[in-house]
Specification:
heterodimer; A: 281 residues; alpha/beta; Rossmann fold; six-stranded mixed sheet; four-stranded antiparallel sheet; 12 helices; globular; B: 427 residues; mainly alpha; two-stranded antiparallel ribbon; 16 helices; 66% helix
């Protein structure tokens, strides 16, 4: 049940976004964006506010149906899953988990219950889809013990084990962020998508988060994250993709992105006076 | 609040009261001696009313001021006390319900009230699955009750099937209609869902009223076969084929009543057992998660469509069982028994009891249905007492009698979760 230890050799593509366009009426939020995320790596998507990062995320995780283009999740030993054509819940089953910019836990349920809901499909199959479980004729007890084991693993990885029986809504903000990541990991995803996981965290919590994300990568899950905290992005990302006004403007290693003129221009505004640049830099 | 501020606040309230009462009470037109209109002034009455408002407002301020308001997420003292009592309370109620027919002083009337209360307990528990656990506001629950009742009546009348065969059929048919209702309303939430379910309840009633060939229309269906004790009918003949004759008992009409009582008791317990069991299963947890946050459920790979439909179907099935029981008990059904007020009463039971709480719903059913019978002597004042009691409960305990949620699983000790954190569902 515990994920494999040791980081798998990076290699191969896990997510392929190909010519993705998303229009809302007359507004094109994402326009012909193509990039790939490598297996076993952390890929960051950055860009100024309104660049289309969350729209891109919502397309990948099935909350929006893209206007055109393709999103493929590559799986070892099988054909790629065409995420752009799957309903939302199927995408999660295909191996893509996500967190939300504004935390979406189940506030009235305990931390442990939150993590068990995440393992719903696995447990549901073990109960014989509800019928066997009511009659008590199933492999359910063993499946539940295993599910609790996995939940315990992620609770201790996120340092929440002593809060397992507290309602999620009563946890402090930083703990809620960590619990949401633990919940996403309980779906045992191949790709974890994080929408601004460091938002609202203090520097120490951000550092802990960075360690947690590296740990998750080490256990064999690839990550895709949207983040504004450049400290976090530049230290942990293997690759950075930059969006501006819905278009992909840069794609490369963090060091290269930091030096990219187009990225600097997008963040600081093109054609501005030099004084402004100095002030903001 | 300081005394000066409290007096000023009360004075403002009195001024508002004066504004209202000056015209409504202070001036009255009457027919004078020459049958002309004259204006009578009643300023004394206005002064008394304003004084009452002034003093009342002052008292409220003083009363609220005594209790300092402290924000807390822990369950309140009331809740803790109720929980302590609750541990003993539920088994005690169960024992009382089990022994009711043999208790001294319990006659036909008390048993009939007991049957009525248990029917509503069962309906409340059935609706609790839909409203309390899955958070889907259903204002048309009585439709499934009606479908169950008519299914039994029609199958028993036209095909001569026995109660024990018709009972599952009634449940399955009600569940089928639950799914049928579920499909179109899956996208709707909150108020919109409530309106559509309300309409569904009315549609079923209107169909029953107008499909005269099948349902008898407003005349209903009469002469519905009474239940048998596994094939042994209850009658006064004393034949070896009858219940009394087979067991060598003195034939008595109370046998049937006692049997009906235990029948609905068993059906209600079945509802409770299934609900309690499912709550600890992935399906029940998914219902509660759906109530808390639907979007997060989708992101976790939970199929919202089927999860909602199972809640609708299961809730409807228990409504159907209760309906079949109702039909066999009454031996006569008509669309009049399945009006919107029934849905409203069942929903009120669930809300007063506390969404998602089994014990709370049972107590609320006892208080509402049993209390309604007890206060029969109050005649037209009954509704007033009743409405007042409901308002008082909702003021004192806004989340229902049992407003807390017990976690379905825990690593350590299970601690109740304050109702403030638990979602109410958005449809």
């Amino acid at each position: 049940m515990a994920p494999d230890s040791g980081r798998p050799a990076p290699g191969g593509v896990i997510l392929e976004v190909d010519g993705l366009t998303m229009r809302f009426g007359g507004l094109t939020a994402v326009s012909h964006v193509s990039f790939t995320a490598a297996r076993g790596e952390i890929t960051a998507v950055i860009g100024p506010n309104g660049a289309g990062k969350t729209t891109l995320f919502n397309c990948i995780t099935g909350f929006y149906r893209p206007s055109s283009g393709a999103i493929r999740l590559h799986r070892p030993g099988g054909p790629p899953a065409e995420l752009h054509g799957l309903p939302g819940y199927r995408i999660a089953r295909a191996g893509v988990a996500r967190t939300f910019q504004n935390i979406r836990l189940f506030p009235g349920m305990t931390a442990l219950e939150n993590l068990l809901v995440a393992q719903h499909n696995k447990l549901m199959a073990a109960t014989g889809f509800g019928i066997g479980a009511v009659l008590g004729l199933s492999r359910y007890p063993r499946a539940e013990r295993e599910a609790i084991g996995l939940a315990r693993h992620w609770l201790s990885a996120t340092n929440l084990l002593d809060r397992a029986d507290d309602p999620a809504g009563a946890l402090p903000y930083g703990a809620q962020r960590r619990l949401e990541i633990a919940r996403a990991m309980c779906t045992e995803p191949a790709l974890l998508c994080l929408d601004e996981p460091a938002a609202g965290l203090n520097p120490r919590e951000s550092e802990e988060l960075a360690r947690l994300l590296l740990d998750i990568r080490g256990q064999g899950t690839s990550l895709l994250l949207i983040e504004h905290d450049m400290g976090v992005v530049m230290t942990i990302s293997d690759r950075v993709v930059v969006l501006d006004h819905g278009k992909l403007i840069a794609d490369g290693a963090p060091a290269a992105i930091r030096a990219d003129q187009k990225v600097i221009a997008a963040y600081l505004g093109e054609g501005e006076e030099d004084e402004d640049l100095e002030v903001e830099a | 609040m300081s005394p000066a501020a409290a007096i000023r606040d009360a004075a403002i309230a009195a001024a508002v009261a004066f504004g209202l009462f000056a015209m409504l009470v202070g001036l009255r037109t009457e027919i004078g001696p020459q049958s002309n209109l004259i204006l009578r002034q009643r300023w004394a009455a206005v002064a008394i009313l304003c004084a009452i408002v002034f003093l009342g407002r002052l008292l409220i301020t003083w009363w609220l001021g005594r209790r300092a308001l402290r924000p807390t997420t822990a369950a309140g003292p009331w809740t803790a006390r109720l929980q302590q009592a609750g541990r003993l309370f539920a088994p005690a109620m169960l024992a009382l319900a089990l022994l009711l027919p043999v208790l001294p002083g319990v006659g036909r009337y008390e048993l009939d009230v007991g049957i009525l209360v248990l029917t509503y307990v069962m309906l409340g528990w059935g609706l609790n699955i839909v409203v309390g656990l899955a958070g889907l506001l259903d204002l048309g629950y009585v439709a499934f009750y009606a479908i169950g009742a008519y299914s039994y009546a029609i199958f028993a009348q036209y095909f001569g099937l026995s109660f024990w065969i018709c009972l599952p059929i009634a449940g399955i048919l009600a569940a089928f209609w639950g799914v049928l209702l579920g499909f179109p309303v899956l996208r709707l939430r909150g108020d919109y869902l409530a309106i559509v379910t309300l309409a569904f309840g009315e549609i079923i009633r209107v169909v029953l009223l107008n499909w005269t060939e099948l349902t008898g229309g407003p005349n209903g269906i009469s002469g519905i076969p009474r239940p048998t004790f596994f094939g042994l009918p209850f009658n006064a003949s004393g034949d070896p084929d009858s219940f009394a004759g087979f067991f060598g008992l003195e034939p008595s009409p109370s046998h049937r009543v006692i049997f009906l009582y235990y029948l609905i008791f068993a059906l209600a317990l079945l509802t409770n057992w299934v609900t309690l069991r499912l709550r600890r299963q992935p399906l029940g947890r998914a219902w509660e998660a759906l109530r808390e946050d639907e979007i997060a459920c989708r992101a976790l790979g939970i199929n919202i469509t089927t999860t909602k439909l199972t809640a609708f179907a299961l809730g409807a099935m228990f409504g159907g069982f209760a309906g079949a029981f109702f039909a066999t008990r009454q031996a006569f059904i008509s669309p009049e028994s399945f009006t919107f007020i029934e849905s409203a009463i069942i929903l009120a039971i669930v809300v007063l009891g506390g969404l998602g709480s089994q014990v709370g719903v049972a107590v609320a059913a006892l208080v509402m249905i049993g209390g309604f019978e007890v206060f029969r002597g109050l005649d037209e004042w009954r509704m007033l007492v009743f409405g007042g009691a409901m308002v008082v409960i909702m003021v004192l305990r806004p989340r229902g009698l049992v407003g807390t949620r017990t976690p379905s699983i825990a690593l350590g000790k299970r601690r109740a979760i304050s109702g403030d954190l638990v979602g109410e569902g958005h449809g």
